[in-house]
């Protein structure tokens, strides 16, 4: 599956159930949220993909 996805442009980001994206002060933010809407963890970057990768790196 990972080999088939070359970039996030192939994914409809709005369909990710527990991740929301924000753009603040020129920086993209990927936020992991729980089922009640509380923000658990954030990742930052100069694009949504970089922010999502930063979020993932913070998890591991």
Q: What percent of residues are in strands?
A: 25-35%
Helix content: 10-25%
General form: globular
Number of helical regions? 1
Please indicate the count of domains.
Answer: 1
* CATH topological fold name: Double Stranded RNA Binding Domain
At CATH's second level, what is the architecture?
Answer: 2-Layer Sandwich
Multimerization state: single chain
Could you explain the architecture of this structure?
Strand 1 and strand 2 form a beta hairpin. This protein has 1 helix and 3 strands. The protein is 20% helix and 33% strand. It has a single domain (2-59), classed as Double Stranded RNA Binding Domain (2-Layer Sandwich). It has a 3-stranded antiparallel sheet with strand order 1-2-3. The protein is an alpha+beta fold. The longest helix has 12 residues, at 48-59.
Write the layout of secondary structure elements.
Layout lengths: L18 E6 L2 E7 L5 E7 L2 H12 L1
Antiparallel strand pairs: 1-2, 2-3
């Amino acid at each position: 599956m990972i080999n088939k996805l070359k970039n996030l442009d192939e994914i409809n980001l709005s369909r990710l159930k527990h991740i929301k994206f924000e753009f603040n002060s020129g920086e993209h933010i990927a936020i992991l949220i729980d089922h009640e809407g509380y923000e658990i963890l954030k990742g930052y970057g100069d694009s949504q993909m970089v922010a999502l990768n930063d979020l993932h790196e913070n998890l591991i």
